[in-house]
TrEMBL record:
Pfam families: EamA. This is DMT family transporter. It comes from Streptomyces xinghaiensis. PANTHER family: EAMA DOMAIN-CONTAINING PROTEIN, INNER MEMBRANE TRANSPORTER. InterPro entries: AA-Vitamin_Transporters, EamA_dom, EmrE-like.
Length: 332
């Protein structure tokens, strides 16, 4: 019991570290969103490059197509995802971005259900309706609150970018999990994580000179420059690399039904942390939208936990049957 509690606390620590990604775009201003993304993932990619160099023999043993796939999903699931998150957070709100991206368990469930039926489609109706209602409420919050005369277009674009981030992350999770389950020889987890990091870092290193050239000159004054460097180091090394290491270690000792709720705390932390940075309280419509989305995730997780227990009880009764690990979520 004590070991499980320690692992849960470690997983919550990792989720908190990841949550700062929703705060950073507003915190590093006047630096551009592109500079934050490329700076963060260039450092993340260098961490991955270091691991790949040390594990060169294991990397050479992998088929080329798998290496390319690891780089590809790293580019999509990290680089493209955080581009959407960064611009969404500055055009709209870090609070709204975190809440919308937090609904990704539902899109992951819908996409995963096509490939591997985890629950009945009827059980997904209520969570999907609640999620869509929450996103709709967040999308029109400026009009409801009477702020539509100034900046409503940016807020709408911010919500759309948050939805793109949610879909991008869902695609990454589903494709990564499917590939790992269908390969007969599982890749080394450390090498795989390094490949994903290099996928995000490679694109960042290519675009970093352009990001620096397109950044406002005031960013290179002493304090703004120190701020952007500190955030890039924190997000790239501590948040992305170390946070993922903590999560992977902790997840090995966490019961499967707890993995989903613990992952969901990342966006809850992100929404809470974003408000002090934006120096405001959430509006009533934002609170309402967040509650709808939180309710949708809760309903989904209740169904998912119940179904996981049913599958587990059937597995224990079948003493001579093969072990089925298809319901164990992949740790990213």
């Amino acid at each position: 019991m004590g070991s499980t509690r320690k692992n849960v606390m470690a997983a919550l620590t990792a989720a908190l570290l990841w949550a700062f990604a929703f705060v950073a775009p507003a915190a590093v201003k006047p630096a551009s969103e592109l500079l934050l993304v490329t700076g963060r993932y260039s450092l993340f990619g260098l961490c991955g490059l270091y691991v790949l160099c040390r594990g060169w023999s294991r990397l050479k043993a992998m088929p080329v197509r798998r290496i390319l796939f690891g780089l590809y999903i790293g580019f999509v699931g990290y680089f493209v995802f955080y581009i959407c998150v960064s611009y969404s957070a500055t055009m709209g709100s870090g609070f709204i971005t975190a809440v919308v991206v937090g609904s990704s368990p539902i899109t992951i469930a819908v996409a995963g259900n096509f490939a591997e039926k985890r629950m009945s489609w009827r059980e997904l109706i209520a969570p999907v309706i609640l999620i869509l209602s929450g996103i709709l409420l967040l999308s029109v919050s400026d009009f409801i609150e009477g702020d539509h005369a100034d900046g409503s277009n940016d807020s709408t674009y911010g919500v759309l970018l948050a939805i793109m981030a949610m879909l991008t992350w869902s695609y990454f999770v589903v494709r990564n999990a499917q590939s790992q389950r269908t390969w007969k020889t599982k890749p080394d987890p450390t090498i795989w994580a390094a490949l994903v990091a290099m996928g995000a870092g490679g694109a960042s290193m290519v675009l970093l000179p352009f990001a620096i050239a397109s950044t406002p000159e005031e960013t290179f004054d002493p304090y703004p420059l120190f701020k952007i460097i500190a955030w890039c180091v924190f997000l790239g090394v501590i948040g992305s690399w170390w946070g993922t290491y903590i999560w992977v270690k902790a997840a090995q000792g966490i019961p499967v039904p707890l993995v989903g709720p613990l992952l969901a705390t990342e966006t809850i932390f992100g929404a809470i942390l974003s408000l002090p940075v934006e120096r405001r309280l959430p509006t009533w419509t934002e609170v309402g939208g967040a509650l709808f989305i939180l309710a949708g995730i809760t309903v989904y997780m209740i169904f998912d936990i119940r179904n996981s227990r049913l599958r587990g009880s059937r597995g224990t009764r079948d003493e001579k049957g093969s072990t089925d690990t298809s319901d164990v979520p992949a740790v990213i």
